[in-house]
């Protein structure tokens, strides 16, 4: 297990703000004991990975054709809110889908917002992040 997997207790509120505890929501995905069943669940788990600093999970859930060779997260950046604005396809029987979201963070005393429409596809039967605009 990486250090990031120990940063958040299973009983803590999940960073993706689903209303569930981390151990019931994104935690099992981060620990490798489950795989996201939908594109939105993968999106939420990837956001939570940013929030807990789990770069390994982010790389593991990136499409093989677009994954960067390495990923360094800013330890000073604190992700504090995720808003899912829209989803298209990405269900349990789909092979592709999109999730539009806004993610909010703070670093160096400044707040920032990321608005993205992310594309997800199935690769080897698992949802992965392809790209986003």
UniProtKB/TrEMBL annotation:
Assigned protein family? Belongs to the UPF0225 family.
Organism of provenance:
Marisediminicola antarctica
Q: Which residues form the YchJ-like middle NTF2-like domain?
A: 38-132
Q: Which domain of life is it from?
A: Bacteria
What is the protein's name according to its record? UPF0225 protein BHD05_04025
């Amino acid at each position: 297990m990486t250090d990031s997997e120990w940063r958040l207790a299973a009983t803590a509120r999940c960073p993706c703000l689903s209303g569930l505890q981390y151990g019931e929501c994104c935690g099992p995905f981060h620990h490798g004991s489950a795989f996201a069943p939908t594109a939105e669940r993968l999106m939420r788990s990837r956001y939570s990975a940013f929030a807990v600093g789990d770069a390994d999970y982010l790389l593991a859930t990136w499409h093989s054709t677009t994954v960067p060779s390495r990923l360094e997260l800013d330890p000073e950046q604190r992700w504090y809110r995720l808003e899912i604005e829209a989803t298209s396809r990405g269900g349990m029987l789909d092979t592709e889908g999109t999730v539009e979201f806004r993610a909010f963070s703070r670093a160096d005393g400044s707040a920032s917002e990321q608005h993205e429409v992310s594309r997800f596809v199935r690769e080897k039967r698992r949802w992965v992040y392809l790209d986003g605009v």
